[in-house]
Structures are given as C-alpha cells and as structure tokens.
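Saturday, quiet lab. Running sequence design on the structure tokens for the scaffold JK sent over.
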C-alpha cells in the first residue's frame, strides 16, 4: 500500500462519496476508484459495498479506517508543528544571563512574549559572565547575556546594550534631594555591596579609585535586587544597574544619575558552530527591544 491509496480511502470514508473524494484530492473519480481497488487488493478484503446507490464501508474497512484516521491526524499535527516552527511559535530555548538581569527584569520583560507563545519552552538560567561564556561555547545554551566579551571562534558575540550605573538611596536620605550624585558625595557613606568577584562591583570600585574616594562597604549581598531591598529599608546606599529595583516606589527608594558616568556593556552571545533556531531568533529580537530603554550607546552625553 502507498500514501495515495491511503489518502483515497481516508477521504472516501470521510466524504462518503468517490466523487466528493476526487474533488477534495484534486483527481478524477476513476482515479479514486482505481486507488480504492488497488488498496482493497493489497488488503485482501472488500472495503465498500453499494446499498441504494450509496457507498457503504464494510466492517473490515471501518476497523481499518480508525487506524488510518489516527495516522492522518498525526500528519496534521506534524503540519501544524511545521507551521508553528516556521512562524517561530514553537521551540525550546535556553537563556543564561547575569543575576541582575535574570532575577527580575528579564522575566518581567519576557512575560508578554511567553504569554503569547505558549508553545515556546524557555529555560532561564542565572549565571556569572565567565560561566555564561563557557555554556555558550559548549552549545549548552542558545542565548547568553554577558557583561564580559568573548573572542572565541565558537562564540558569536555582539554588544546589545551599554548602560550607566545608577545610585540608589533611601527616600529619606539627605542625598536624595540631589538629582545628580557625584562619587565625591559618597565619601564615608555606608554601602550595600555585591561580592568581590562581581563584574559590576569591579567597575564601580575602579570609578571610586580614579576619584580617590574610599568606598565604605558595610554589607555584602549576592544580588543587586537584594541590595535594593536593603536600601529601600534604609540600611545604606548602593550603585546598581538601571534595570534593577524598578518595583520600589519613590517614597521608599530613589534612583539618581551617577557622575562621572560608569558604563558597562552587555554582550549577546550565541553558539558559533550552528545557526540559531527560529524561536531563538525571535527571542533575541524581543530581548533587544527589552533592553533598548537602557541603551546609552547612541544617546548624547550630558554636557
């Protein structure tokens, strides 16, 4: 038996007519009849009888039709899956990002996309930038976001955002009255700091060293969001990425421009040895849009 015989049989069962089956398949009635005869010979039993001018399937044909129907239902599912993949509505994507992005902002930003694409299966991992580079190079994640560049042949990398760190203060802190905070203003202030190996902490510490200001680290926490929580509760101040702590109202936590501006880049990393899936491409487009409000690359510097 072949697929054309099965199509003729399946369509004839569905329509109850050789003529209608031919119209649906785009072939002549004699062609359908020929396919049914050859299919009956292959099966070794009669498929249809005539009763009052109507084509009636035999009991054996009805038994066979149930299995054939399941087969064609499977092909329809494959067709729908192919269409969903083509339209980038289905797929499995793994993203690895630093905690400052993965903990809250990225999940919030991607929620509308995921709500509209229920057949895209996403895994979001929080990792430090060196580990993210290793995972991308090994092909274990589809999309990596890193604050460190990687120049390796098996990693494709590009900058998708340059952001300026901001100073966060309790709403009742005396410095909260200023719209711009200079590093010199932070001398002797009590800091909520990130771990010593955190890339953003290294960048902030360099800015303090260049101004000759001693930074007083009072509390060390693992995440920028944790730092914002302590600041909102009046424990100290901190310097964090601009996409962190956005959920706190201004009567608890204020965000101020930091001068001199302290910039960090976010690199988009993808495996270089294989083309990205259509679902990954769509997620990359969404991530670009999500980080664009904080991108300082094409904005004029303040005078």
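Result came back. Writing it out in full:
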């Amino acid at each position: 038996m072949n697929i054309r015989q099965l199509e003729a049989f399946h369509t004839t069962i569905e329509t109850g007519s050789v003529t209608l089956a031919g119209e649906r398949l785009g072939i002549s009635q004699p062609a359908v009849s020929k396919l049914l005869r050859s299919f009956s010979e292959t099966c070794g039993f009669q498929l249809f009888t005539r009763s009052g001018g109507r084509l009636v399937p035999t009991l054996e044909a009805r038994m066979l039709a149930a299995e054939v129907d399941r087969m064609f239902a499977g092909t329809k599912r494959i067709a729908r899956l192919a269409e969903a993949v083509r339209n980038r509505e289905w797929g499995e994507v793994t993203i690895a990002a630093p905690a400052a992005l993965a903990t809250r902002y990225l999940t919030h930003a991607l929620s509308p996309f995921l709500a509209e694409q229920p057949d895209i299966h996403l895994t979001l991992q929080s990792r430090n930038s060196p580990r993210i580079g290793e995972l991308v190079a090994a092909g274990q994640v589809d999309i990596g976001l890193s604050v460190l560049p990687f120049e390796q042949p098996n990693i494709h990398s590009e900058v998708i955002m340059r952001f300026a760190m901001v100073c966060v203060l309790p709403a009742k802190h005396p410095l909260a009255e200023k719209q711009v905070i200079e590093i010199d203003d932070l001398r002797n202030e009590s800091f909520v700091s990130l771990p010593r190996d955190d890339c953003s902490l290294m960048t902030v510490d360099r800015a303090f060293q260049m101004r000759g200001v001693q930074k007083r680290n009072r509390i060390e926490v693992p995440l920028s969001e944790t730092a914002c929580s302590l600041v909102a509760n009046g424990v100290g101040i901190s310097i964090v990425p601009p996409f962190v702590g956005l959920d706190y109202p201004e009567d608890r936590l204020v965000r101020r421009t930091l001068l001199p501006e302290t910039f960090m880049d976010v690199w988009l990393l993808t495996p270089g040895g294989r083309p990205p899936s259509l679902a990954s491409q769509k997620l990359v487009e969404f991530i670009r849009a999500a980080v664009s409000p904080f991108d300082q690359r094409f904005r004029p510097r303040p005078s």
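Notes for JK: The CA atoms of residues 143 and 270 lie 5 Å apart. The chain has a mean pLDDT of 87. Ask whether to fix the surface positions before the next round.
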